[in-house]
Amino acid sequence: MGQASYRTRPAATASMPPGIPFIVGNEAAERFSFYGMKTILVVFMTQHLLSSAGRPDFMTETQAREWLHLFVASAYFFPIIGGIVADAFLGKYLTILLLSLVYCVGHLCLALMDIPAPFLAATMEPRGWLLAGLALIAVGSGGIKPCVSAHVGDQFGQSNRHLLEQVFGWFYFAINFGSFFSTLLTPWLLERYGSGWAFGVPGILMALATLVFWLGRHRFVHVPPRGRRYFAETFGTEGLAAIGKLLPLYLLVAVFWSLYDQTGGAWVQQAERMDRHFLGQEWLASQIQAINPLLVLAFIPLFGTVIYPAVDRVVRLTPLRKILVGFALATVAFAISGHAQALVDAESARLAAGGLGPEAARWPSVGWQLLAYVVLTAAEILVSITCLEFSYTQAPPHMKSLIMSLYLLSVSLGNLFTALVNTLTQDAAGNSTLQGAAYYRFFTACMAVATALLVPVLWWYKPREYLQQEADAPPAG
């Protein structure tokens, strides 16, 4: 695996780098594995988690939301470690390969929760296997996240710079291609075949992702790690200036991720109390999330070929302006879901007042949530894809993975904020005191404040673009 046998700089060419199909294929399989297990976590913890004796060991809805967001926060904290290891010591390729193996072991731990009870009793309780699996997946998936997205950018030089935005779109397309199919499949596997298969199939896809990445090793540009120089360069004048400029933006983006990642928690629980008949069949509550990646697959070409060019003819659509519009749309999306929750609350009050059972319920249509998904997905296109490319181009060459990890840390901070809200509002029984539509109004207000605060950041930020040097360019000092 020595670095000497690999190309270390992109070729001076206007064409697509040869390693891109392997990176995109790897990302599709890896995201299938991550979103597949994440999609069913809340439902598993509240409806399927058993003790080693086979008795129910379910969590409350508030506790499950807390566990989910702490897991996601952890998965997006470890990019800091992965970014430093990649840029300073191992390089991106080797870091991705080794941590992918850790990732696979984490999936194995989750699948072990479904093995016969006597064996579990001799080792750990299912909650122990759950904690171990989530911890290993957080380390593995988190550690590779900044490296994979930075590895994409490393394949490009100035000659094919014009293809970078297109490839980050493909990269995000691959993420949602894998996410769409896993979001439909894993809830069905959990319902029909139990947690062993529901968590095991994503593990198999992670192993496949690792294999695809290894197969592309001779097609990639491998930017060598900087060694001890990395720390002096990163915490020198240029490095600190780049970090300092981006931090205010990332702190505000954290609020966006606080709202966005509740589609896997609060929105699943909301869908449990909605009429989920759509397209001629009744969908599982956790399957409703599949609308998001499906919309992403449709919106990426729509935004890239129609909406962005049309808007650009009227006003120059800079990356920061895209993010600002995305923030505003996220506020609207959560306001829609808040209205849907108010309808759920009203129906619950009607049933309670009349002493009626669930068979008499006239729950609001899941169409309200689907509308919220349309608006939130448009916000995601404007915020997430833009932040990926913007973060890469704004990072000096020696700290691409670190800057990507700082962006991903915004996802961690957003989920940590959500987990903290759920923790601080719990009563003695483990239920939140911030109930119903009030919960949604709180987060909608947070997003509105973040949108207002982004305006001065947009005016203050002065972009400076950095790309990797090409093979025929003189080496950097």
Short structural description:
With 477 residues, this protein is an all-alpha fold. Helix content is 70%, strand content 1%.
Structure commentary:
The protein is an all-alpha fold and 477 residues long. The protein has one domain (18-460): MFS general substrate transporter like domains (Growth Hormone, Chain: A, Up-down Bundle), CATH 1.20.1250.20. It is built from 16 helices and two strands. It has a two-stranded antiparallel sheet with strand order 1-2. The longest helix has 36 residues, at 319-354. The radius of gyration is 23 Å and the shape is globular.
The CATH architecture comes to Up-down Bundle
Roughly how many Å apart are the termini? 25 Å
The whole-angstrom Rg is: 23 Å
Helix share of residues? 55-70%
Shape: globular
Overall number of strands: 2
Q: Main beta sheet: strand number and arrangement? A: 2 strands, antiparallel
Tell me the structural class. mainly alpha
Outline the low-pLDDT stretches: none
- CATH H-level superfamily title: MFS general substrate transporter like domains
Instruction: Please state the average pLDDT score.
Output: 89
Ordered list of secondary-structure elements with their pairings:
Elements: H1 20-47, H2 61-75, H3 79-90, H4 92-111, H5 117-122, H6 126-154, H7 164-193, H8 195-215, H9 229-234, H10 237-260, H11 266-271, E1 277-278, E2 281-282, H12 291-312, H13 319-354, H14 367-394, H15 400-424, H16 436-460
Helix pairs in contact: 1-2, 1-6, 1-7, 1-8, 2-6, 2-15, 3-4, 3-6, 3-15, 4-6, 4-8, 6-15, 7-8, 7-12, 10-14, 10-15, 10-16, 12-14, 13-14, 13-16, 14-15
